[in-house]
Amino acid sequence: MIIHERIAMHSEDDKKKLNHRLRRVVGQVEAVNRMIEEDAYCVDILMQLSAATGALGKVGQIVLENHLKTCVAEAMESGPSADRDQKLEELLTLFRKYASVID
């Protein structure tokens, strides 16, 4: 994993919204765990897993959109060429990883 200098770009409102969504995902995963412990019907477990996966994917989408609108936009508008190249490479890596998750 490559570590880059980062600037916090999430507003307090964004953080609250993301934390709310993540708490919901945690609740869904805990529900799956209970369902497994209680020998719930497999289809019901799979439906709950699907909901948790979708909710977590939405968190990732929000973070990616924020990254594009802030960090990447700033690098493209005013950053040196090396910063722009770095952000583009970062995006390509993210898209490759994200695509493998949703395949």
The largest sheet, given as strand count, sense and whether it forms a barrel, is: none
> What is the domain tally?
1
Structural class: mainly alpha
User: Terminal Cα separation, in Å?
Assistant: 22 Å
Could you tell me the radius of gyration in angstroms?
Answer: 18 Å
Q: Which fold name is given in CATH as the topology?
A: Methane Monooxygenase Hydroxylase, Chain G, domain 1
Q: Provide a count of the helices.
A: 3
Can you tell me the overall shape?
A: elongated
CATH-level-2 architecture: Up-down Bundle
Instruction: Extract low-pLDDT stretches.
Output: none
List the helices and strands and how they pair.
Elements: H1 12-37, H2 42-78, H3 81-102
Helix pairs in contact: 1-2, 2-3
GO biological process, one term: negative regulation of DNA-templated transcription
GO molecular function: DNA binding; metal ion binding
Family: Belongs to the FrmR/RcnR family.
Short description:
The chain is mainly α. The chain is built from 3 helices and no strands.
Structure description:
Belongs to the FrmR/RcnR family. It comes from Allorhodopirellula heiligendammensis. The chain is an all-alpha fold. The chain has a single domain (13-102), classed as Metal-sensitive repressor, helix protomer (Methane Monooxygenase Hydroxylase, Chain G, domain 1, Up-down Bundle), CATH 1.20.58. The chain is built from three helices and no strands.
